[in-house]
Design a protein that fits this description.
With about 450 residues, the chain is of the alpha+beta class. Helices cover about 20% and strands about 35% of the residues. It is elongated, with a radius of gyration of 37 Å. The mean pLDDT is about 85.
Length: about 450
């Protein structure tokens, strides 16, 4: 390269360097602005204007709106004061709203009563509750409520893992006076948690929400626990009860000849016995099963095995008749054995309480054993003990005066599980008492929903 060419390259390089120093550098310093999540433009890796991509704010297209798990509930607190609850689910596993304005609207039969507005926090991915206490309705009685969030909520991405907060030892007490829910909160995380909101919902035996309340904890140290309490000034209003668990109930009904000892057409006391048995089956719940065995000289299980179709069982009870081919004896052992086989069948649900209700109007006289007059009863007691050991609860009913009360009392699971009915008139009452006994009323269930606020809660 000659001297002139080198000189030209030096001049060009100097011009380029000057352009960089006096044009490009000032442009980047004073004019160019790098894309941010707050510049009002869609740039960089954003999915929308200042949202999506690396931005903390989420775009509307990325958001699924909160879902109402059931219609808002209104709970009476006093004559003119009510609380109202919305139970919601946020399907966005990494999206939350720090400030979500909302409106509850209460109505009676004549229309709008009042509105209650507020602001809450929507936590990411899970169930949460919005609770408003002490809503004054004057003299009007609300029958329904609606709930609505404001439009254009600002959704923020949050991928952090929530602290492990467990609520244990839940108990509902003093339900007939001033109900009270007590529970223990345990912080199983490694850091202190603050601003914890707890909403409790109390359900009756049929799963209906009958009360709600809210409380707070300012903070909870790692590994520590604290007790929380929710209270109400008056008992909950509910007429609904249900059994805590289903039962499989077998009826064993005596159809020996003595069940027509009162004569008449249709035969008595058999007709009253069948009507009382049908009444008992009708007291069972929709998740219960029932089955039927009738017995005399032998027992038959051909009527109906355990089934949830209770109509089939009541029809089978109505079809019981006394055989006319000779004298019919009383074989309680065979009735127990065939009942036991039914409880061993696939029709008996293994997680369900088995119940046998046996009714007889006579003394067991079969099966026989030479030289042992007591064998009809001892064999029945032996089978009964096997059934009780297997978890079957046995109730016995002695109809009339010609029964061995001591035997039937021993056969029953407990002495008070034997019932004596001097006449068939008492059977409906006895079956009612048995139905009540096997249906342990389900206590109200309690749900407590914790929520950790990312900011200080105003009390």
């Amino acid at each position: 390269m000659d001297w002139a060419t080198k000189r030209k390259l030096q001049y060009v390089s100097a011009i380029i360097l000057a352009a960089i120093l006096f044009v490009v550098v000032p442009f980047f310093i004073f004019i160019y602005k790098a894309p941010t999540c707050f510049d009002g433009a869609k740039n960089g890796a954003e999915s929308g204007i200042d949202c999506g991509g690396a931005c903390k704010l989420l775009c509307s297209a990325e958001i699924a709106q909160p879902i109402s798990r059931w219609d808002p509930r209104v709970f009476r607190v006093s004559t003119s004061s009510y609380s109202v609850l919305a139970y919601l689910e946020n399907p966005n596993v990494a999206g939350e709203v720090y400030h979500a304005p909302y409106t509850f609207t209460l109505y009676d039969r004549d229309g709008l009563i009042t509105e209650r507005k507020g602001e809450t926090y929507i936590p990411k991915g899970g169930n949460f509750a919005v609770f408003e206490p002490n809503v004054d309705t004057g003299a009007r009685i609300p029958i329904r409520a609606t709930f609505q969030f404001a439009n254009n909520l600002i959704w923020v991405r949050n991928t952090t893992i929530d602290p492990a907060i467990d609520v244990t030892s839940k108990a509902l007490i003093s339900t007939s006076t001033t109900p009270r829910v007590e529970a223990t909160v345990q912080n199983n995380s490694l850091s202190r948690v603050s601003n914890i909101d707890f909403t409790t919902i109390v359900y009756d035996g049929s799963g209906n929400a009958i009360g709600a309340s809210r409380t707070y904890l300012d903070s909870l140290s790692p590994g520590r626990s604290k007790d929380i309490v929710f209270t109400w000034p008056a008992p909950f209003v509910t007429d609904s009860e249900s059994c805590s668990s289903p039962v499989d109930a077998m009826l064993a009904i005596d159809r020996s000849g003595s069940m027509a000892s009162l004569g008449q057409n249709p035969p008595q006391p058999l007709t009253d016995v069948k009507n009382a048995g049908i009444f008992f089956v009708n007291q069972l719940n929709k998740n219960d099963e029932a089955g039927l065995i009738s017995f005399a000289t032998s027992a038959t299980s051909t009527h109906a095995g355990l089934t949830e179709n209770l109509h089939d069982i009541t029809a089978a009870i109505g079809d019981i008749s006394i055989l006319s081919d000779g004298v019919q004896s009383t074989n309680i052992t065979d009735a127990l054995m065939k009942s036991s086989l039914e409880f061993s069948s696939p029709r008996h649900k293994t997680d369900t309480q088995g119940v046998l209700v046996l009714l007889t109007d006579g003394v067991a006289n079969l099966p026989e054993k030479k030289g042992d007059a007591s064998y009809p009863e001892t064999s029945a007691l032996m089978v009964g003990e096997q059934m009780k050991t297997a978890g079957i609860h046995i109730f016995t009913i002695g109809l009339g005066k010609d029964v061995n009360q001591n035997f039937l009392r021993s056969l029953a699971s407990a002495s008070d599980d034997f019932y004596l009915a001097p006449s068939a008139d008492q059977l409906v009452d006895i079956y009612t008492r048995i139905a009540t006994k096997i249906c342990t009323k389900k206590p109200a269930s309690i749900e407590i929903i914790p929520r950790l606020f990312p900011y200080t809660i105003g009390l």
